[in-house]
């Protein structure tokens, strides 16, 4: 299982609110950066390694446990390895729903239904899903939705209502006269206002 540990040796640098990646193994390709970790594709595989920033490394074990609980469910990546600062999971080809909105890719009601079904399945396994938002949902080219970034599915934590709020917004989005494409700046602005005035789970 320890084959992937060499890839977890990533150098990070903090710049104010942002964390940047400054050095990593040549077998890796930087794929995405979140608020707690950097995600790299492992070349010549169908896997990614999520390496947590200093100060967030405790999340690795928590997130690994959630992936183990959800093992076999179709709407979640499989877990391949986990260590003190990282997890290795399936690479999900596609675009986050956030990217879909920027590119004007239609978000179908069937995708919303898939998320709801995945959340029901996770709750049945005793988890309490939270932090479900547009950047943590990936749409694959064949129209399937995957949920990622699952640390805040753990039991006994304070849950948020982001997904319920997003579904309310979705009712607006579906109206014929509403735009189906938004600038990244605008979406980030809305997300900022939402976190500040409505709901910030990290505060
Ligand atoms: N398994 C995956 N397959 C493809 N892309 C992924 C995968 N996991 C994460 N990503 C990309 O990396 C970004 C950051 O990962 P995420 O797990 O959300 O980190 P954080 O906990 O810091 O928010 C995601 O928004 C997504 O774009
Ligand atoms: Mg995320």
TrEMBL record:
GO terms for molecular function: kinase activity. It comes from the Bacteria. Transmembrane segments: none annotated. Keywords: Kinase, Transferase. InterPro entries: Kinase-like_dom_sf (IPR011009), Meiotic_Drive_Suppr_Kinase (IPR052396). SUPFAM superfamilies: Protein kinase-like (PK-like) (SSF56112). This is Protein kinase family protein. It comes from Exiguobacterium aurantiacum.
């Amino acid at each position: 299982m320890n084959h992937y540990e060499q890839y977890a040796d990533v150098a990070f640098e903090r710049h104010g609110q942002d964390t940047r990646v400054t050095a990593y193994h040549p077998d890796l390709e930087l794929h995405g950066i979140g608020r707690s970790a950097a995600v790299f594709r492992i070349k010549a595989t169908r896997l990614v390694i999520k390496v947590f920033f200093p100060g967030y490394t405790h999340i690795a074990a928590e997130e690994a446990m959630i992936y183990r609980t959800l093992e076999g469910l179709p709407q979640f990546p499989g877990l391949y390895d986990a260590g003190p600062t990282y997890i290795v999971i399936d690479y999900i080809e596609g675009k986050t729903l956030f990217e879909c909105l920027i590119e004007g890719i239609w978000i179908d009601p069937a995708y919303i239904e898939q998320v709801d079904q995945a959340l029901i399945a996770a709750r049945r396994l005793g988890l309490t899903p939270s932090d479900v938002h547009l950047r943590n949902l990936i749409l694959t080219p064949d129209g399937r939705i995957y949920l990622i970034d699952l640390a805040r599915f753990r039991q006994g934590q304070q849950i948020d209502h982001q997904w319920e709020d997003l579904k309310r917004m979705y009712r607006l989005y579906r109206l014929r006269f509403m735009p189906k494409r938004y600038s990244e700046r605008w979406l980030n602005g809305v997300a900022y206002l939402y976190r500040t005035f409505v709901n910030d789970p990290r505060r």
